[in-house]
Amino acid sequence: MFRKVLVSAAMLAAFGHAYAMVDVNTAGEDALLGIKGIGQAKAKAILDERTAHGPFKDPADLGKRVKGMGGRTVERLQAEGLAVGPAGAAASTQVAVAGPKEPAAAAQAAAQKGGAAVAVKK
């Protein structure tokens, strides 16, 4: 019985690690060091490049801009849980674009339902 519980816990831990993605465009040094295959020097190179030239657009952009990271290395790091690309950037852009319009839309919806709405200027 104990053996089954131990094996189940080990499997859950392995699957949990596989699904814990680290976004290269928002991660700090500690998060990058948590990815198998990224050491102190590589984490520093990623952070320095991101700080100097902005977020990475896609895996190919990461491979081109960070010395020593070719296509295969980036693919391997993605398999280890490194996320690169427009998925994170699109979500941030979508929130930034939708943010200012949201209060007006909420006020309009409330007015259509006959309720009161308060508009706040920023």
Spell out the key features of this protein.
about 120 residues; mainly alpha; DNA polymerase, domain 1; Helix-hairpin-helix domain-containing protein; signal
Kindly state the number of beta strands: 2
Spatial order of strands in the largest sheet: 1-2
**The CATH topology of one domain, please?**
DNA polymerase, domain 1
Termini Cα gap = 60 Å
* Largest sheet features: 2 strands, parallel
The coarse overall form would be elongated
List the total number of helices. 6
Order of helices and strands: HEHHHHEH
Task: Provide the CATH superfamily of one domain.
Answer: AF1531-like domain
- In terms of DSSP E residues, the strand content is under 5%
The CATH first-level class of one domain comes to Mainly Alpha
> Structural class of the secondary elements?
mainly alpha
Query: Helix fraction?
Result: 55-70%
Keywords: Signal
Organism: Paraburkholderia sejongensis
Protein name: Helix-hairpin-helix domain-containing protein
Task: Give a verbal description of the structure.
Keywords: Signal. It is a single chain. The chain is mainly α. The protein has a domain at 2-84: DNA polymerase, domain 1 (Orthogonal Bundle), CATH 1.10.150.280. Helix content is 66%, strand content 3%. The protein has a two-stranded parallel sheet. The chain starts with a helix and ends in a 10-residue tail after the last helix.
